[in-house]
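Q: Convert this sequence to structure tokens.
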Amino acid sequence: MLPGLNPKQVEQAMKKLGIKQENIDAYEVVIKTDGKNLVIRNPNVTLIKMPGNESIQITGDIEEESVISEDDVNTVAEQAKVSKDEARNALERNNGDLAAAIMELNK
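A:
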């Protein structure tokens, strides 16, 4: 909460404004983007409902995970004639871009 403010008073003020908070029990939150996932472990998730709007606040331990499929690894490995480990590393360096990974490996 806010320093120096009584949590009960803050809650009452929010209630008068029509703002409600609800905790959501979650063990992991994943935000998917192009090329990577943001994984939030041990999250504290709060749903905030206001008149005409809803938002979610998430705090926790954030990790990035790359999103590279096994099919992509196989394709790069076959096309560049390299091992799967080399193909995966090239894909990670090139943010999952197959063509760029193959071109890098063929240099």
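The helical segments are 7-16, 70-80, 84-93, 98-105.
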